[in-house]
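for the record, two folds in this file. i put them one after another cuz i was lazy. first one right below, seq on top, structure tokens after. the second one comes after a little note so u can tell where it starts
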Amino acid sequence: MLRIANASGFYGDRFAAVREMLTGGEIDVLTGDYLAELTMLILGRDRLKDASRGYARTFLRQLEGSLGIAKDRGVRIVTNAGGLNPAGLADAVRELAQRLGITVSVAHVEGDDLLARAEELGLGQPLTANAYLGAWGIAECLRAGADVVVTGRVTDASLVVGPAAAHHGWHRDDYDALAGAVAAGHVIECGAQATGGNYAFFTEHDIGVPGFPIAEVHADGSSVITKHEGTGGVVTVGTVTAQLLYEIAGARYPGPDVTARFDTAELRQQATDRVLIQGVRGEPPPKTLKIGLNRLGGFRNEVTFVLTGLDIEAKAALVREQLRSALRGNEPAEVRWTLGRTDHADADTEEAASALLHCAVRDTDPKVAGRAFSGAAIELALASYPGFHVTAPPAEASPYGVFTDSTLDARQVPHVAVLADGTRVDIPPPDETRELREPADPPLPEPLPKGPVRRVPLGTIAGARSGDKGGSANVGVWVRTERQWRWLVHTLTVERLRRLLPETEDLPVRRYLLPNLFAVNFVVDGLLGEGVAAQARFDPQAKALGEWLRSRVVEIPEELL
């Protein structure tokens, strides 16, 4: 068994987590996930300013006080903090170790960065272009004795699969074992989300400040998700289910090394803060790799008007017409208005009596989206609705990015393990591949017999976890008993979701069933426009989409309450 811990779920996660995980108990490997679609854009802009940058510098500062602890305890570190410059970060770690007087072996994985070949590969001229590599480069580095392995863009789960494969001696066709490790990696890669963070039923537990998760990965690929004793949070079948549903699509979860069948996963509470994941089946991976592309889309700006008291709709209409007139002849390419009715009648505070009217604009010209827009809004201050004020002073426009994804044949993408001594080992693409096809929906269980119902929020019995994938969003919904599942699967259809979440009404929506988890997962294409960096909606990463759904009132059988 190999104990693999996580200490970062995103660039900006809890700084102290690296030290906490190294000193809080026994672990064999410490991983850190620093990359997301938005992070790659940020690192791309960093690299434009200085070609020696492009990696997550926070990781170096975390190592400053922790590298010696890891070395003394024999803990190996695997991280994707290398971002767009894994070789640069590997060199920086070596320099840090030398300055601290610590002897460590540092290797890195490269080949994912396709920017120099983007046009040749038909990817246009993006700011960043990165393939999602798999786990075998990491495994090669660890087998060669590396204490620290730095990668660029690998799949998040690869940070767990690589160490597990190296430790257990798995082969590339050990698909079930690999798939089990993918499930474990998917659960712990977002840090404290597996230990009670962002958990729908948080009121049932004393969450406090959750500790970070650990996956105890066994030779057959099964794992136990846990955390250090005495840390905050909880590990339950519910917290693990929530994270399994995070940012997925259907039952088949494709990766560069294996396609994991999440519909075969079985969860069991072994003990307090210990959840077993077993039974995950694996299949050959698709022949293509996912490619993430970031482009600079233009410039954006926004102004938020505060509307207080009476006549909210009339006040909104007045300022909209006034600003439209003020911008005539110099109107930004895209102008988007949203009115948040946060106001309450007969409110006992001014804030509770106020609504927020947001005006967001985008244009390729920073001047048009800049002070020409925000200044025009402020000039209305003494000439508009009663009580006029805004939440911030006029501002210049800021650049925004656009994320898209594509695919490439894995044979077109280099995958290289660069060992500590500089030896370069090419990692070949998989010999066996399989076209990705969604399995047919499983047969539905018998619906519950009719009986008395009560109108209550869906979240009374159902949990949810939602997130983003480019311009699409997913929301996974689960319940905790077989009878609740029989009700949920017949009730929460695509048509019902559209009625409950009107923003999805005109968008493509797909529903996937995961009976083993008592869960349904919905993917809504286009909800997030051009991705999180484009800031296309109020909740640009759809993090709270599931909580909105849980708040909607539905008729639930009384026996389930």
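(here's the note) second protein begins now
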Amino acid sequence: MRRLYWVAWVAWVLVLGCEPPSSQRARSAFVVNPEAIDFGAAAVGRTKSLKLRVTNGGRASYRVEGAVSSIPNVTVPSFEPFILSGGGEREIEVLFKPDVEGPVQGSLELITDADSRGDVPVLGRGVKAFVEVPETELDFGNVAMGLVEMRQVTVRNPSDVESPLELSLQGTDADQFTAERGETEMLAPGESRVVSVAFAPKRLGSASAELRVAVCEGCEPAVVPLRGTGVASKLEVTPLRLDFGRVALGASAEQSITVRNQGNLPLRWSGVELQDNPGGVYRVVSTPVVSGGTLEPGAVVEVRVAFLPTALGKAGEGRVEVGVHEQGSSAPGPKVSLVGEGGTSCVSVLPRELDFGVVAEGMTATRSVEVVNRCRDSVLVNNLRLDTAQGGYFTLAQAPASMTVPAGQSAYVGITFSPRTGTARASTGQLAVTVRSGGTLSTEAVSLKGTGRVFQPCQFQLPEHLSFGKVPVGAEVSMGLVLRNTGTQPCYLASMQLAAGSAPSFTSRTVRNGVLLPGAKTTLVVRFKPDAEGPFEGLAEAWVNHPTQGHPLVALSGEGVRGCFAVQPTTVDFGLTKLACGPRTRELLAINDCVGPVQVAGMALEQTGTEFQVAPGTAFPSQLAPGARVRLTARYEPVDDGLDAAALRFRLEDGSEYTAGLLGKGATKAEQTDRFLQESKAKVDVLFVVDNSGSMMEEQQSLGQNFAAFLSAATASSVDYRIGVTTTGLDSSPGGWSECPGGAQGGENGRLFPVDNSRPRIITPSTANAAGVFADNTKVGVCHWNEQGLDAAHRALSDPLLYNQDDTRTQQPNDGNGGFLRQDAKLAIIFLSDEEDFSAQPVSFYETYFLALKGNDKTKLSINAIVGPMDLATCPTSSSSGSRYIQLAQATGGVVESICTPNWAASLEKLSNSAFGPNRKFPLTQVPADTARIVVTVDGVPVTTGWEYDAATNSVIFERATAPAPGTWVEVTYPLGCN
């Protein structure tokens, strides 16, 4: 296989010559959802609207200038041109207004400068309406409690046949509106009828609903918006129920009550009174003072109420009375109910304590606080406030502007500490961060501390230049830039980082402030990954306490090449190594893939200490024959705590130099902490592989009939799912006693069922009648005889099916699986069979492939099976045990159920929890030295029960009932051994 790759590469080079291939440039990727716009049925003369989501799936930005439709019935409202950066999304409204009956087909072209075309197929069907309804809103205005306000809407039957009149009221306040249909529910040809709609407020405040009128079969109904406001003596109090939602313990949330006099007479105002306050968790923050105690006509006042939970769970319902009355009336004022829940916030500010350590007088140190949004919606971070309690100065390293943090992302707040001259004591302060999520307002606090000290001028050693030599395009070399304290006094390092303006091919993580003792060192790891041929330059900088040499600079250089000599791996990272464990070894290869010999003039190991050693398999200088591989052994044995780095350089006879970076970190007491974020709004792609052999009819029906049980966990967690079905059949059935539906005669060969697109092949939360579609899609027939489920799943999730809308190997149109698998979604595969799998590859092949689809992240893969059990005595109707399916499911931590399950709903509910439920398995990055010393915390709270360590997968696995809630942080800390 490697030889084939080499031949293909040589041919590619001969075709392209010296021109760099376009695949090496950053590319944009035009992606739309849905991939085809299908308006379905739409009434003639009426406008139907759909949203088209445009996504940039590449790295390079592209610009969208406008949209052009190939048919006049489809239009796009004008919009300002916009730029989509890599991963960006934007929604565009598309309108369809048919002029005549019949199907409409065309395309919508988005005018872009993307690398791929912006064409989107458009489908629709004009249907003649049998009922016409004007699209006007009915506004009932302010209606006093106990009264009824009427409005009218006219409906008309424009056809020459009798048509039914079907009305319905929908919406949160539909119970406050009524609509009269008249004496008959049929409209005569050409008849117009006036329908009366009434609003009788049952509650104070605004009310809204919709009057829906069926206009034609298969069409969306005509919607007449209804709105009105219930008032008491022309008094408006909104809202009448304050729901603070979930608020973290120790935080507070505030909301407002608005009181408006909408009448012509003044009202008496006496403020507000908190009547019911269980647990003392509610508080009136502000009450306006009204001149003369009178609320004049048209006047508006605002009352703010806060919720401060003191315990987890729902708080008791509170009540506040608004003291507003008609003159001379003793009736009680309107009452507003208060509800809220104490819990862990979906927004975290980390760390809770920021310690700058020791900072030299006259210098500064800057650290960052991370605001993590685990909510389902964006939050607004504002009102950043810094207070210094004692000592030096804490200041913001950025303008105190508001920041919007999208769901699932983080924002960073930089803070700078400056010691006060002559103040040796510790400095303390606090950062307050106010976060607004919807109507909830909470404040998080971070304590700050640091200490000032006077240092003597730092004596240090730092190279003036760091050269990466020649690096293959796309490969990455990591090297260490070492600053060592060569003096006899402690040295203060403020920071060490890449300078602004360095080529983007250079990256590093800033080394933050600290004190270097005499002889100690600190290392800035710089990574160089060229994306094109040619030279690259950068600059690293540091700040140390020295009156004239306090800002040393180091030049960085490297060259991207496309050559036939290489060193692999380009970076050898030994990871964390305990000093008492002895040396670790790794292997490297010097490779000559040239058509002729290569003369290696020499090899040298550059380092500031003695931690690394390299033993070549051959002496240098040496001539490497074409195709030669020289194996070298690298050895790392740390002598002290801290990061170590070295460079292994190969110098060729022509003077060119190739470099491999060596990294390692020594530790006296090694402890590892792995940190995981439990997703708050999961995306899951589910592939059912259903046996379509002759004995599976009842099982297929049971699967389809229990769709609600399968979706139970998805519904509870608002999962964004995509569900597809394929069969265990690869080749079309030769015919015989039974035919299989769907257009492939049982030979789906990995294609989603039905391949003839007679129904939606991918079910999503927006699929109409999803349960019915799923039930039909699982009736794949019973015509086949050769069950190859693992191969079917592999083919469904690989080229050419995976990313193409059409399988060009077949005659059926649009039978590819493009659009099913999402890169950022969890993948769940569920096999349903009463027979063993007869696929070609070993089970380990499929496990490796499916894991690779998800970047080897085991938390992103769930494989499950409802198959014949190993003990067939418990399942006499099964032809054989599904041992290969069971093996794959168990290897990935999935659920296995018997095909003879007596309770399909219960079995599918288990599969639902596996596919859609919160992640329960958290793979560790290292192997613990002592599993009894594993410490697990969820949102900082230690968890001692409800989980176990699984040595086979090196994971911490929670029980289903104790799985961390969506949006929480899970941390696992454990000691490292001598692995």
